[in-house]
Amino acid sequence: MSAPDAPQGNDFWNWDIEAETSAAGVGENGYPFFLWRESADNRLGLSRPRYVCILKEKGELCLAFFNPSTPVRPTGGFIIGGGVALLVALAMITGFWVSPPPPAPYVSNMNPPPFLRFLSVVVAAGLSGAASGSLWYACVTLVRWYWDRFAQDGSLLVRPLRTLSGFNLVDAGAVGAIANGEKAKTGHGLTAVFEDGTMWILTANAWEYPTMVFYHSTLTNTFREPRDRYLVDCDTEKRELERSKAGAPSPEATIPLSL
């Protein structure tokens, strides 16, 4: 599989890939990674991919999973929209109060009744608030993307690789997938399960069952099947490094004594 474009270097977590596609490879540390992008993570069509990889921290191999959608910083669009709507409503009510419409001529009164005035305030304030809030959300989202590609959003989960039991396919509704406002009754999710019973929800869709099966087999073959071999190689490398340090002469022993 060819690697997608990486506009900010070769770091795979910054790769741009199409929604509902995936990519795999080997990182700079020599261990594999697998990433995929979900349309549910999109904000104005923009999103960083999800990924699973192996990290080496303090000589120990760890499994890591990045979720770009939990948590996401609020943009303040609702606050801005609500504030603008309130200002518009106050301005219109004040205008009606300060400058009431002149009395209609003769007997007939053609001025709009109070209900229609109230309705005009609600409609104008609602439209103004929705437009300003949406514009604020769009501007903040675009600025954050072009500034740091949502680098301050999302979460990275890390666990020792030796505790990984495997990857499971589960019902989408059991891991939080929503369809038509309620738990999804179809579809599947994918989880990573650890020896102590903890579980990571990697993804859950009500409509991507073939993709879930592909992810399950790929993640299993990439991380679970070779897990023991990775651990043995890492332990061997660690012991060899410790022996080389123990056998190296101390700096004091290499300094010749002056006569």
Outline the secondary-structure elements:
Blueprint: E1 21-26, E2 32-37, E3 50-57, E4 60-67, H1 77-98, H2 114-148, E5 155-160, E6 164-171, E7 178-179, E8 182-183, E9 188-194, E10 199-205, H3 209-224, H4 227-247
Antiparallel strand pairs: 1-2, 2-3, 3-4, 4-5, 6-9, 7-8, 9-10
Helix pairs in contact: 1-2
Description:
By secondary structure, the chain is α+β, with helices and mostly antiparallel strands. The protein folds into two domains: 152 residues, no CATH class; 62 residues. Helices cover 36% and strands 23% of the residues. It is built from four helices and ten strands; from the N terminus they run E-E-E-E-H-H-E-E-E-E-E-E-H-H. The strands form three sheets. The protein has a five-stranded antiparallel sheet with strand order 1-2-3-4-5. A three-stranded antiparallel sheet has the order 6-9-10, with helices on one face. A two-stranded antiparallel ribbon has the order 7-8. A hairpin with a 5-residue loop joins strand 1 and strand 2. Helix 1 packs antiparallel against helix 2. The N and C termini lie far apart (67 Å).
